[in-house]
Amino acid sequence: MPNTKDQSPTILIADDIEANRELLTEILSTNRYRIVQAEDGEQAMQLLEEGEVDLALLDVMMPGRSGFAVCRALKSNPDTRLIPVVLVTSLSASEDRVQGIESGADDFINKPVNKEELLARVRSLLKIKQFTDELEHAENVLFALALSIEAKDPYTEGHCDRLSESSEALAKRLSLSEEELIALRRGGIIHDIGKVAVPDQILLKPGPLTREERKVMQRHTIVGAGICSPLKSFRSVLPIIRHHHEKIDGSGYPDGLRGDAVPLTARILQTVDIYDALTTDRPYRKAMAPDRAFALMREEVKRGWWDGALVDELEAMVQAPVVRT
Fold first, then answer.
1. pTM above threshold 0.70
2. Residues spanned by the domain of 60
3. What is the CATH number of the domain that holds 167?
4. CB < 8 Å & 24+ apart, contacts of 249-252
């Protein structure tokens, strides 16, 4: 868990030489940082994985796991990759710097350590870490809100998680970029977050909606995009939220986009969304078998609603044999 504003930031100092650890501790303790120490790379990893470290100062040349190895492990783990890492080293060769950069290090400090330089770099990185923690908290609030909306309807249990997983899998099959994969992973969870503004008597109505009720319901895409727009990290998610109810022939909402004007990520989530809705139980019908669901989706493709190529790719993905390792 990240530290709150009332807690002093926790800094990990990892060095196999005690005198080096004590020197860094003495410098940093005067600024009221909380210090934890590790004698080698393994102990450093254990402390980092416990989740209470805000910044790591890693000696490069440690027995067992080197600072490079610890940094690589830290940055490859989604739970720890946002922890800033400073490599403390007496190495000066350019190839060592390159190795540090490739390991994911955020900064370097040369030995012997300059006190003012150390404090300045630590302050800068901790400020960035604080901004990152605040952003992560805001994102988590949005995810919790989206899942609370889903929880109102027992027939949609697990829907968001399935959309998140399947949309990302379909995007990988299409060789989309990492940014687009992340957008679909997030979009699967929060695409319907705007339904927080839809009254329950409309949201949970078992029968057909009136014309006025449909207007209220359809505004959820605009409301959802508005809720998420202040977060710059969600810029790639906004087209998914706003446009996942558009149709290829322009008859969808909210903007009546046609063809390729409907963003590809929105079309991917839309395709997975329709399939998931058809293949899960609803109050008015039982879940369809996959073959029947895809047959119905192809009928709607002929009407000009959905992207036929994506329906084909989704069916191929669903029917692909599971490879067990």
1. no
2. 10-134
3. 1.10.3210.10
4. 249/303, 249/304, 249/305, 251/304, 251/305, 252/305
